[in-house]
Amino acid sequence: MKSKLISIIGTVGVPANYGGFETLAENLVKYHVSVSLPDSLIVYCSSKSYPFREPTFLSAQLKYVPLNANGSQSIPYDIVSLALAVWNRSDVILLLGVSGAIALPLVRFFSSARIITNIDGIEWRREKWQGLAKQFLRFSERMAVRFSHEVVADNAAIAEYVLLSYGVDSHVIAYGGDHAIAVDAVNVDEYVLPERYAFSVCRIEPENNVHLIVEAFSTLPTHPLVMVGNWNNSEYGREVRRRFASRPNLFLLDPIYDIGKLKTLRSSAAMYVHGHSAGGTNPSLVEAMHFGKSILAFDCDFNRSTTEGKALFFSDGNGLQRLVETLSDRVAHQVGEEMLEIARRRYTWTVVAKQYFDCISG
């Protein structure tokens, strides 16, 4: 059987520095090597993020686009990447995200490539998008579903949304999280932290219910919370930190990108608090599940689907307070064991990458 040329589009690039799609792309390349697949890979990368511009990463060719992959340039970045993929006679295009999906009708016209799109987490519903940006993202999602040969949803709740909204079935493929435990732990002595604490890591955005979590723990002085995030990137984050940073049981840390340090912080935590209310399967949640800790998650379809309904759920600050105050060691241990079993069964990169390449092979 003739080998295929597969182009991966929509990420900053590989090797991954940060981000869910970048980690996905890197692990697809690693799986491609580990099982010696005959197909050829090209990963499109932002030259703005890779000044040395290596020509290859493991088995993948790297092609560089002179635009930023995120922010206002994300749309032309994806469109240029798609045009190059067509020019390079790709047999399969794996598009991660819908930013450039407005170009898919032209891709279908000029190319016979099979298009597989991961539509991400219903991006247009996020609170940070308003007005024209929200309308554009919704239109891009519609174009992605209509003009892709296959649609990937990272969560069963996303797949149900796509079916109800567009009448299209999706492949449900989540993310791996085992890379979070595969690294060596790194010392975190620069942080003076309590022995027992709840842990959370996320982008500091309203839809991640950061204010709800921090305010709830501010009323629980004997229960420390360590929360890692980009507090200074928005007025929302700065305001939450201003209001609560003086509380002695709250440790509101700046972003930590060293996965070894995150491993140390997660391993030492008594529980993980996950406030995301949007976005499908959140990488930070499946990573946390691999640590076998009890998980207290905001009650929404996405989080229930990811944890198979076996996490502990809260829908407001009072509910979170009650969970923290009443959580027994027995229940914490049981929930942690269930999270680890689900993670090992569903959220390893070997499982996820195989699902992607099965989809690619048709």
From TrEMBL:
Key word Chaperone present: no
Keyword set, alphabetical order: Transferase
Protein's UniProt keywords contain Transferase: yes
Highest taxon in the source lineage: Bacteria
Alphabetized InterPro entries for the sequence: DUF1972, Glyco_trans_1
Domain Glycosyl transferase family: from-to ranges: 195-306
Domain (DUF1972) ranges: 6-178
Pfam families, per database record: DUF1972 (PF09314), Glycos_transf_1 (PF00534)
GO-annotated molecular function: glycosyltransferase activity
Protein name from the UniProt record: Glycosyl transferase group 1
